[in-house]
Amino acid sequence: MKQRGVRRTVVGEVVRCSMNKTIVVQADRLAEHPRYHKYVRKVTTFKAHDENNEARVGAKVRIVETRPLSKTKHWRVAEVLQQGKEEQV
Q1: What's this model's pTM, rounded to 2 decimal places?
Q2: What is the full per-residue pLDDT of the chain (89 aa) written as tens digits?
Q3: Which residues, in sequence order, are CB contacts of 72 under 8 Å at separation 6+?
Q4: Largest CB tally within 10 Å, which of 4, 5, 52, 57?
């Protein structure tokens, strides 16, 4: 039986949830500047598949890399770690 490889996981904050079954997650990381050796905060955004539309803006989520689901969506929500604010209708 074939074994799957280890999938990358990222923890980030939901910054957009206006699309159906898709959220935009922002992940921060610290990178050292090559010349000045100070740490700079870098931001990366990912589009992730949210099957049940359960994540809201401000929620902290763990996403897992998966096969391409669309042109720009290659991640899916593994779990919602902390709920964000509710949308106002």
Answers
A1: 0.83
A2: 778 788 999 999 999 999 999 999 999 999 999 999 999 999 999 999 999 999 999 999 999 999 999 999 999 999 999 998 765 44
A3: 47
A4: 57
